[in-house]
Amino acid sequence: MIEEYKKIIEKKLEEYFDEKLKNPEYGLFKDVIESMKYTTCLGGKRLRGILCLEACGMFSKRYEDAIPCACALEMLHAQSLIHDDLPCMDNDDLRRGKPSNHKVYGEAIATLAGDALISFASQIIIEKTPKTISSDKIVKLLYEYSLAAGAFGIVGGQTADIEAENSTEKISIEHLKFIHKYKTGALFKASLLLGAITGGADEKQLEAIKNFGDKFGLAFQIKDDILDFTSTTEILGKTAGKDENSNKSTYVTIFGLKDAKEKLNNAIADCYDILNSDALKSDVFEKIIKSLEN
Fold this sequence. Notes:
The protein is built from 15 helices and two strands. The protein is mainly alpha-helical.
């Protein structure tokens, strides 16, 4: 099902961008739309969109209702990658094994493309979500999306991350957890919430999904920290070893590789516990968690 979800998301993303690119009214700003599409459709695991579709199907058996949300989340993720790669941020020339957006379109267009993706994603939720989904639900979807997209989500996390770079001292564990909770975890939590809300989950189920999103986001980021230390540029599709070279505080630089792996295993165990205790039975979730194991 993971591959099926991925194909659906990629097909719909292409459709949503091409629909705008083919409209002659938008000809004068075709470059920025192409820049938006470039990074969004560059590939990747589509993990956030997949989690969204699975969460929706878990509660309604109609995962198709959440396709617009899944695509919107992938757009928001692409926005974070475009801005993260800019020279004023992480300054990386590679993304998913291809030139970063600003290396292809220039810094100005890349910046504007990132800005535009934030609003285009919410536009897609409004335009493309099936009419069978109530307006009250759509308001909830947009609220959770906006929360994840802004200063109280990934922007806040990125800000805390920038403040921690090139520091002569290691940051506190609380600061590190804050970065991971908002820079990485906020978007995973939103992905699960948007799917669950679309699928009709009740408040208790939404709380369980939130808890799972927090724990999964932590596990994912610890794994990412480990891979930056142990993997290669060719495998990662982005420059390896940047965290250490920029004196960035991560689970590996603070705890060491061995303890970071142990903390990853603990976070993964927490994810499994939540699935079992809160009856969030999902082969898709289990396979995704398993992919993070050492």
